[in-house]
Design goal:
The chain is mainly β. About 15% of the residues lie in helices and about 45% in strands. The chain has two domains: about 30 residues; about 475 residues, membrane protein fhac: a member of the omp85/tpsb transporter family (Porin), CATH 2.40.160. Strand 16 and strand 17 form a beta hairpin. It is globular, with a radius of gyration of 27 Å. The relative contact order is 0.12.
Length: about 500
């Protein structure tokens, strides 16, 4: 009897050991990664750097729910929250939710964001048709050598104040296999104004060339930035000058064969959709009455080609956004429409979220196209505790160009400019205004002093390399360096961006 019991216990122990081994094998995926289950979360400092926005400080949390881990590295629920501010007075206050499981067989994203921006970039319309003058907003210590007295205007010359409110909901369902339908609704609220110079200056030392030293003084309030000049010259209409609220509806098709969303190594993602946007503005009456209801079309294609297993991936993205009906206010053309909002901001074109190395919002037009090419290599993989990490390198090339330029009334602009010169000259004698620079300092002119249309369609290009540190295939820290290939897009060569996630 004892012998029988002993044999039985031995058999049960053997079976349990085999089951344990089987269970252990199930804890590792096909790539040898330990499978995550349940809730995974943590609070981290929101520390970043952007060549256009400065250093960022704040806090963020990213909460993932993996369930039993059967779909790992895909998550069941993702909740992202962030509150941060940058040294150039740009704020981020955001909550985002993403899931393919809350509504069975449908992907749902929800986003609520507030972005105060005391110094939003504005370089004029139509890319190279607008001249960029570095000396207009960057004073030098040696006026005798650098021409400060002649060229320097104000550090806010290419800036305006913009507060953005965004509420968005997007849903996606399957039509057949990887082909999906998508729809969305939301509202964008813009508050636009000239920069608050007193707030920006604070106790900042401003160079005073008249006494050749740093002095505590307010910047000349009578110096207008480019935004104020565009409003005065009628290039920006009064109905859109101060912003507005824009509810929108969106619908389209999506094809998605990626192996994962956050760090794909193979597959295709493509979408095509229409966005209808309404408009109203209590301050200047109904924008709808002024024709600001508009319809836009977007197309986006991403391709991830495995070069060597999951270690090396060739990735590229091409896309376009065009206005096909109605009139889009200038400030909305800085927004790159997208499905399933994952980043805090989608600016187009120029900057960390579109064309790295090129100044933020350098290319402003009714329609544009862009391309990004990257070679992503995971150079090292390792575990720290229970977390999976890899370090990667990604050289890249970015390109953007205009497809639909703003139609500028050259004759009307020249008349308004000439009137401004006369009025400002009289006020300048009593210190109440600054005379505008020659028209050629604002617009590209041909040999006959007419607007040079040939500059509009010239491509804007930049190149660089990125360093990636990824945890659990979902949390990615990116450090990108990029340089514009034309100084009209950015005179600096050291443009760094530290942010979360891949660009695409």
């Amino acid at each position: 009897m004892k012998k029988y019991i002993l044999l039985t216990l031995t058999a049960l122990l053997t079976l349990s050991m085999q089951a344990a081994k089987k269970e252990k094998k199930q804890e590792v995926d096909s790539l040898g990664r330990k499978i995550k289950t349940g809730w995974n979360f943590g609070v981290l400092p929101s520390v970043a750097f952007d060549a256009d926005l400065g250093f960022q400080g704040g806090a963020l949390t990213n909460i993932y729910y993996y369930g039993d881990g059967s779909q790992y590295p895909e998550y069941i629920h993702s909740i992202y929250a962030e509150a941060a501010y940058t040294t150039k007075n740009y704020g981020i206050f955001r909550v985002n939710y993403d899931s393919k499981y809350l509504i069975p067989n449908h992907r749902l994203t929800l986003d609520a964001t507030y972005q105060p921006d005391a110094m939003c970039d504005f370089y004029g319309f139509n890319g190279y048709q607008s001249i960029y003058n570095q000396d207009f907003h960057k004073w030098k210590k040696d006026p005798a050598k650098m021409g400060v007295l002649e060229d320097y205007q104000t550090r806010a010359f290419y800036k305006y104040k913009r507060d953005l409110f965004r509420f968005a909901a997007d849903i996606e369902g399957t039509i057949w296999k990887n082909i999906k339908w998508n729809a969305g609704l939301g509202v964008l609220g813009y508050m636009i104004d000239e920069c608050d110079i007193d707030m920006l200056n604070g106790k900042k030392n401003v160079y005073d060339p008249s006494i050749d030293r740093y002095a505590q003084k307010a910047m000349n309030k009578n110096v207008e930035g480019l935004y104020e000049k565009y409003v005065k010259w009628g290039i920006i209409d009064q109905n859109e000058a101060k912003g507005g609220w824009h509810p929108y509806l969106r619908a389209g098709l999506t094809y998605d064969s990626r192996d994962q969303r956050t760090c794909p190594t193979k597959g295709i993602y493509a979408d095509a959709f229409f966005t209808y946007t309404a408009a109203f503005n209590a301050k200047y009456g109904m924008q709808a009455d002024a024709g600001y209801n508009h319809l836009q079309f977007n197309f986006n294609f991403r391709h991830y080609v495995p070069v060597y297993k999951d270690r090396v991936t060739f990735a590229y993205r091409i896309g376009t956004q065009n206005n096909i009906a109605g009139k889009s206010p200038f400030y909305m053309n800085t927004y790159l429409n997208t499905l399933f909002i994952q980043r805090v901001m989608y600016e187009g074109l120029g900057g960390a979220n579109s064309l790295r190395g090129i100044m933020r919002n350098r290319i402003l037009a009714n329609g544009f196209a862009y391309a990004n090419v990257e070679l992503r290599a995971k150079v090292a993989k390792f575990d720290i505790g229970k977390q999976h990490f890899y370090i990667g390198l990604a050289p890249f090339f970015d390109l953007g160009l205009i497809t639909q330029p703003y139609k500028l009334d050259e004759a009307a602009i020249k008349v308004a400019y000439a009137k401004d010169v006369v009025e400002s000259t009289a006020l300048a004698l009593v210190g109440k205004a600054v005379v505008p620079r020659p028209l050629g300092d604002y617009f590209a002119l041909d040999e006959n002093n007419n607007f040079d249309q040939s500059h509009i369609y010239m491509p804007h290009m930049a190149a660089g390399v990125g360093l990636k540190v990824a945890m659990n295939e979902n949390f990615v820290l990116s450090v990108d360096w990029a340089m514009a290939l034309n100084k009209q897009d950015n005179a600096k060569w050291a443009n760094f961006y530290i942010k979360m996630g891949y660009l695409f």
